[in-house]
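FAQ
Q: What does a multi-component entry look like?
A: The components come first, one per line:
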Amino acid sequence: MQTFTVHKGIVAPLDRANVDTDAIIPKQFLKSIRRSGFGVNLFDAWRYTDHGEPGMEPSTRHPNADFVLNQPRYKGASILLTRRNFGCGSSREHAPWALADYGFRALIAPSYADIFFNNCFKNGLLPIVLSESAVDRLFADVAVFPGFALTIDLPSQTVRTDDGSLSFAFDVDPFRKQCLLNGWDDIGLTLRHANEIRAFEAQHLAGQPWL
Amino acid sequence: MHARTLYDKLWDSHLVREEGDGTALMYIDRHLVHEVTSPQAYEGLRLAGRTPWRVESIVATADHNTPTTHWDEGIRDPVSRTQVDALDANIRRYGAKAYFPFRDRRQGIVHVIGPENGATLPGMTVVCGDSHTSTHGAFAALAFGIGTSEVEHVLATQCLITKKSKSMLIRADGRLARGVTAKDLVLAVIGRIGTAGGTGHAIEFAGDAVRALSMEGRMTMCNMSIEAGARAGMVAVDQRTIDYLDGRAYSPKGDLWTRAVAYWRTLVSDEGARFDATQLFDAASIKPQVTWGTSPEMVASIDDRVPDPDRERDSERREGMARALEYMGLEPNVPIADIRIDKVFIGSCTNSRIEDLREAASVVRGRRVASNVRLAMVVPGSGLVKAQAEAEGLDRTFRDAGFEWREPGCSMCLAMNDDRLEPGERCASTSNRNFEGRQGAGGRTHLVSPAMAAAAALAGHFVDVRRLS
Ligand code: SF4
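Then the predicted structure of the entire assembly, as tokens:
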């Protein structure tokens, strides 16, 4: 997994609550059996005015000029600022894959749906929770300053602007933080406890032999 | 020992180890696998040179991409076929306790086949790369959806890294009125607590209204707990749970059955157990529900009107409502019962079990689908449900009324196969999500119970099913 330490990037604002995973990556793109290549179809139904299907050549598509990611000022954005309950709906991991494949490294919102939140960490994507008021403030600043960028410092758990005008602390689960900082993969970590799992399993199945 | 909730008991009995910060390794008993969220997990496994930890835990089927007509022609869409072929190849290579492939007699929606085959049992931890895994909680199992990385993790280690959720008790007391179903109850719950109301919680549904529900009804409720934001939903074991499982294909038999039942009976929340949150509902006051927006919390009773965003004080909510109404092509203040529909879909892991089909058929019997309804379809949840319905003659009832009777699968619940809404089409659907484009780009979904969907098909618009009979 890609490591995450300190990241500076342009912020793109997606001013909607309850953005679901169907919107993040529409279901017709779930038919791929690979993990990569979903970035061009991120937010497909909002991003293009024509209907997208797998295998379409991106250069033949019709971008929706109004959609935030199509606006020149947010080109190259790597931090997505959004509203509460982001990532609700289907558990598809294609959603974080698409966000990461597009180039996002971090998300900022007041809350996320549970499964989506978990899936992000497993893909080197940092979902940051800030208060509603902090998020409001960031939306206001993004609107006013073209090229608005933030630095996300995972070791010190802060989000800040370079000129020091804004700085917010955020919480992150210590275990998830270590995994991101070191790029650790969960399976390898868990298999260090293989003996313990085996012992548990033997006892568990002896107690409930019908399992 | 202190009083424990059902969730506490399920949690404690699967804890392999726990770190000081609460990060836990949880043992997984049942791993359900389908074609959409598993190929990348198996690929990861293969690349790392690993094999499944416990093949006996795996039950697999193909459901999301499979067509519901012309099964003799196979899967025509090459991309869908690739995914189903990948599942076939992975199960062939790595094995499973049971596999119900495309066209198998027992194939069906993953959340329908688990319980009906007795592959979901009380006291189990059940996971699947699918958010509606919460369905299985109806059997006092701890069941929840996981992402593809976690699918790979469970394959490789039989465990999940997780943290304990908070607990929420949703208690519905009183009796549901005639014509009001589990679907209406759970939609009313989501309407009140909101789609994020259960975030971070495992919900236990209790109270005499829940006790009175069949296992199918309990599954409908647990299925939709994810739409309230909860990781899991569950119902305690009672006689109905045990009766349902008796004699199922993978249920324990003989001596083991007796032992299992004795254990299962302990799977209830203890008297005096503490929940982190509690919500009380009066079941008797709930009316048939219809969603009007693009989130399951945007729901109203059949005798209500489409709400007016101008009366909403919270600006974020107001904008969300206005956007939803625009997408749905609805004007504020229109009576819900005046909304005309183009299509009807009876199916999905929420409402495609035998009882759902019986409920809908009893409304339809001897009547005709309205002429403005272009397509009314019934998609049974599994091959076994379909066979049972046909044995009862329900297929005839539906066909005679003008419904199409299809092969089992997810179908228009998420429209990954050919069954979908055209832009602007309006559908009465028994599924679980009314998000933008869920049933086809530009399609407009109203979530209802099977009885209400059947009634809408006959009337051509939403109607209180209680007025029909
Ligand atoms: S029926 Fe719908 S919600 Fe259920 S598993 Fe299939 S696609 Fe998911």
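Q: Is there any commentary attached?
A: Sometimes. For this entry: The first strand of chain B starts at residue 15 and ends at 18.
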